Amino acid sequence: MKGLFGDLQTMPMEEMAVYLGKQKASGTLNLERGWVRKQVRLQNGTIINASSNDPREFLGQFLINLGYITEEQFHRAYETQKQTKIFLGRILIMTGTVTEEMVLSVLNLKMRETLFETFLWEDGSFAFLPEKAQQATQTELKLSAPLLEMYAAGKQRKEQWETIRQLLPSTDIHFRVFREKFSGILSKTSLVSRIVRLAEETHSLAEIALQLHATDFFLFQHVYALVQAGVLAPKDKNELPPLHLHEEDDEASSSKHLLQQAQSCLKEGELREASAFAKRAHARTPTAETLALSQSTESQLLNELRDKWLEQKRTPVLAVPAEQIKYLSLSAPERYLLSRIDGNRSLSAIIHVSPMREVEAISLFEHFCELGWVKFLQSDSTEAVFGTTHPSPLAGPPKSPFPF
Fold first, then answer.
1. What does 151-195 look like in DSSP terms, one character per residue?
2. CA 338/CA 277 separation, integer angstroms
3. Could you report the per-residue pLDDT of 225-257, keeping only the tens digit for each?
4. In 10 A of CB 197, how many CB atoms?
5. Per-residue pLDDT reduced to its tens digit, 200-229
6. Segment holding 40, helix H or strand E
7. Where would I find the beta strands (DSSP E) of 105-156?
């Protein structure tokens, strides 16, 4: 078959899944929406692999969310991966942190969630590049899922999401907790218990998602069930804490004007401002030009931030009393990052374990420094992670058929 290109408003994911499934297509399906890019590999109408640049859909984040590994174990494996180029899952298996069965189970969940989320996209673009069917790896054969089966499940997911969003329309929601109702629930998983505890600690839904390293649907479906069971109840607006104040977007600014401002800032080397203007221009009127400029400025900004903050090994500490931070009006990402500062975790450890995008996380730390909330301790030549120095547990790449 020929290549297929278009936008998801014209051909939604559910229609594309049926078409490619019935065609028994083989090739690569690229999906893009804003900064999120996903790639799905198909063989004879069956999905054998799926990847995403959304940090929440990385293997390590799923493993943390399910309680299979801790943030510390994730960062140790990440540091080893940088040195050895071995897949993260294989490192965790070889160090005895998880079993191969656990990793395969989570990879299967990760692959499905990566695709299912696109069924909820109301806009975006796609490009299917056909290619001859090739022999799949042993792991891909174990993880394969027929696209037509995924279509049925994805359609159901979309219907569930619409129902859930009627009850939970915003991530700014806080909850009242009724512990007496929770005691009557039979299936109290670790994840559900953590959700209830975080709700009791007055975290919003957005904050709970970050604390648990959870994707939206994965968290919302559990919260929805707890609300239906009477364990959680969304607070009324007059019960909520003051909202974090974001910079107002000037409605009078046209996309063209914002684009000109972005290009002007880029020429002056003001990358943070250029990236912000480019994003606002693309959000106002999405075009190929605004998307290209937004991606280009963000890429340059990320490189600059990495050079400035991650080249030297340093450890952040609070420069103000923790009690003072507690009562500040903060966004969910700000509160999450500040909660990870303990004087032991290195900046790179916090950034790489975070379910946030790297450019956003580093930018917030830079902002914390400008506000005088955070300062840095210079580390020695060996990076201290979570208060302990960890040598690489692996000397070289293992021989394995499992690419994870």
1. HHHHHHHHHHHHHHHHH---TT--EEE-HHHHTT-S---HHHHHH
2. 26
3. 999 999 999 998 655 455 444 444 444 467 788
4. 13
5. 998 999 999 999 999 999 999 999 999 999
6. strand 36-43
7. 125-130, 145-146
Cβ atoms of 7 and 124 within 8 Å: the answer is: yes
C-beta neighbour count of 16 within 10 angstroms: 21
Which 8-state DSSP code applies to residue 318? E
Angle 297-298-302 (CA atoms, 0-180°, nearest 5)?
120
Q: Which residue has the tokens 């089966």?
A: 149
Q: How far apart are alpha carbons 56 and 351 in whole angstroms?
A: 13
Q: What is the amino acid identity at position 32? A: E
Say if CB 182 and CB 231 are below 8 A apart.
yes
Token digits for 358? 């790297």
Residue 42: name the closest of 54, 30, 55 by CA. Answer: 30
Q: Please state, in angstroms and rounded to a whole number, the distance separating the CA atoms of residues 284 and 305.
A: 26
The length of the chain in residues reads 404
Amino acid at 200: E
Cβ atoms of 318 and 341 closer than 8 Å: yes
Residue 3: phi, psi to the nearest 5? -65, 160
Q: How confident is the model at residue 134 (pLDDT cuts 50, 70, 90)?
A: low
Name the DSSP class of 120: G
Answer whether 0.85 is exceeded by the pTM.
Answer: no
The number of helix segments (H) and strand segments (E) in the chain equals: 18, 10
CA 349 to CA 316: how far, in whole Å? Answer: 11
